[in-house]
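Example 3.2
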Amino acid sequence: MAFLKTGFATEATPLLRGSGLLMRPPAPSDYAAWAALRDRSREHLIPWEPKWSRDELSRWAFRRRLRYYQRDQREDLGYAFFIFSEAGGELMGGLTLSNVRRGVTQACALGYWLGFEHTAKGHMRRAVSLAVDYAFADLRLHRVEAACLPSNAASIAVLRRNGFQEEGLARRYLKINGAWCDHLLFALL
């Protein structure tokens, strides 16, 4: 596993590598692969994500997303990664460490998605492991939090296999596919 950095966490372009994966911040050149993967995986992703906008897969929406990610990284509020196969360079999904809180908290929220054809192969388990190592070693966080729908057995398994502990249930916590949904809360210290 390698973490390549050029400076402090807020100035860095993180590159995470290990376990057959390469994780790096999204770039404008990723648009076509991202849009195609998300489009192919639409039915798989919709039940677990906020409601998709009409322009969800447009180039303009992707650029807006990149500006948001870049601002968050610059301000040490969040770190976005695309997950690639190290061998073939194929885009497989994405992961974010968002809502970074400093001061007495030193915590962030973990979120992730995987294209349908890449599920059930251990990729997300390995990606979460790399991201958690980065959060603790490089960002110097104390706590990584995650939330998932109680019906998302695959996501629950990813979190538990990475050592996350279930901490409770947040009622009507996030608006998923247009409805406020309960979520199980997990954390890793």
